[in-house]
Specification:
The chain is an alpha+beta fold. It has five helices and seven strands. It is globular.
């Protein structure tokens, strides 16, 4: 009975805030970064566009960092097709930036339940810079699919002839803006040593 009450309380809190886990203190930068990655269903991936003279080119991708809501690895997993411009760009330059953002809309308020414009510093903005690594072996590919498919159930139904690729990022640098002031760098070591909830 007590467990049922706890589950219902968590569900009610989730419905009110929109987040699965409470928003952490914005001054705890590594934890906030891990939380934002875990709460995010999507990311913006900026590649160097070979088609447009190698300028930064953003793409929206669905993402996941674990096998369920309680499992958060901090590793970003993505799923993209080999016929996409992303694939063409990564063949030339696999250095990228992933962006994760609090949008400050409706059920996802930024900073103490208040609503801010998405550009306001109260809404978190995280950038992970690194190199995209495709999973070439079956074990890595299956693990990445497991991490992605629970969260994005439409993915397994996407056309098989598009030759889907699973990948992650080897993070080299991180910065986070979660409050007024400049974006603060976070070392990958501190990021992975923290927790998401």
């Amino acid at each position: 009975m007590m467990m049922m009450k706890l589950v219902l309380a968590l569900a009610a809190a989730t419905c009110v805030s929109g987040y699965v886990y409470p928003r952490p203190n914005p001054f705890d930068k590594p934890k906030f970064a891990r939380w934002l990655v875990h709460e995010s269903n999507w990311t913006i991936l900026a590649t160097s566009a070979t088609t447009y003279g190698n300028v930064a080119f953003p793409n929206l991708l669905s993402t996941s960092d674990g096998a369920n809501w309680t499992d958060c690895t901090g590793h970003v997993y993505i799923y993209y097709t080999s016929i996409s411009t992303i694939h063409a760009d990564l063949q030339v330059n696999d250095n990228v930036t992933f962006g994760f953002y609090e949008v400050g809309e409706k059920d996802f308020p930024c900073n103490d339940g208040q609503h801010f414009d998405a550009e306001d510093p109260n809404c978190g903005k995280l950038h992970l810079v690194g190199r995209v690594k495709n999973f070439a072996n079956a074990t890595g590919h299956e693990m990445a699919e497991k991490y992605l498919f629970w969260r994005h159930p439409a993915m397994p139904t996407w056309p098989k002839d598009h030759a889907w690729i699973t990948a992650t990022v080897e993070i080299t640098s991180i910065d986070l803006l979660s409050m007024y002031g400049p974006a603060i760098p976070i070392s990958p070591e501190d990021y992975y040593a923290s927790s998401c909830h």
